[in-house]
Design goal:
Helix content: 25-40%
Strand content: 5-15%
Distance between the termini: 19 Å
Strand order of the largest sheet: 1-2-3
Order of helices and strands: EEEHHHH
Number of helices: 4
Largest sheet: 3 strands, antiparallel
């Protein structure tokens, strides 16, 4: 298995685990940060936050724990620090 990175039609950067011989990410298992659609921010900011989390390899709750203050720093730079607890909870709830 290998991880493919791609951008969907809406501009979201996504990852998908696919078989080594496959090149179509739709055939694989999605591997992305938790769904941010429930956050009280505009869809444009949701997409921007999602893409920044992907670029910083923050996919799982464990990634966030290992990354220390990475999520807080990202939210601070985006002027969304007030959403810190909500974003961290989304990661915690999404863990397997």
């Amino acid at each position: 298995m290998r991880l493919l990175k791609y951008t969907d039609k809406q501009g979201y950067i996504r990852h998908s685990w696919v078989k080594n011989v496959d090149t179509n990410p739709k055939h694989g298992l999605p591997f992305n940060p938790p769904d941010l659609s429930g956050l009280p921010i505009e869809p444009k900011l949701q997409k921007e936050l999602h893409n920044i989390l992907v670029e910083n390899n923050l996919f799982t709750h464990l990634d966030v724990l290992k990354g220390g203050a990475a999520v807080t720093g990202i939210l601070r730079r985006m002027k969304l620090k007030h959403l810190r607890q909500q974003v961290l909870m989304l990661y915690k709830l999404a863990r397997s």
